[in-house]
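Subject: for your reference before the review

Hello V.,

The reviewers asked for a structural picture of the protein, and I figured it would be easier to keep everything in one thread rather than splitting it across files. Below is the amino acid sequence we used in the manuscript, unchanged from the supplementary table.
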Amino acid sequence: MLDKFKPTWMVKTIYAVSPDQLRACGIRAVFSDLDNTLIAWNNPDGTPELRQWMTALKEAGIPLIVISNNSKDRVAKATKNLDLPFVSRSLKPLSFGIERARTKLGLKKSEVVMVGDQLMTDMLAANEAGVRSILVQPLLNTDKWDTRINRFFERLVWRQLKKQYPELKWQEDLND
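And here is what came back from the structure prediction:
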């Protein structure tokens, strides 16, 4: 049961994962959570690091698609300045949003990776979809009110995961 929450990789920040590292792992598309993964939940403009990473992905021909549980209006507003495609109301931890995006791109499960900051939604959805995953540390130590509930349960799951998988460690990038 715990393996449903286990990430493939744990990287402090997604900005440290290069297109070359992704390609070396056979990754042809990146699906990402939005709030506290790509952007701080209270800052839709993103950071210079995000924009540099997005440019590197684009130049490498690796699409970046936001997979979010938020409403279409919320995600559209948050991604407007980033010019990113998205799947809203993705129903994470179910795999619907990931499957919809993967099918649209015509890619195999082994060719995509889901990035997120939460075990309870992002990692579980990735494992349900049968795709690899990258857990990142949240950009902020604060969350919206609804995410705080998930964080409570996440701490309980983390304790058990660390016992069962002591090799789970934060990495600087995929090659660490």
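For the response letter, the relevant points are probably these. The chain has a mean pLDDT of 91. Strands lie at 9-11, 29-32, 64-67, 86-87, 112-116, 132-136.

Happy to draft the paragraph if you're swamped.

O.
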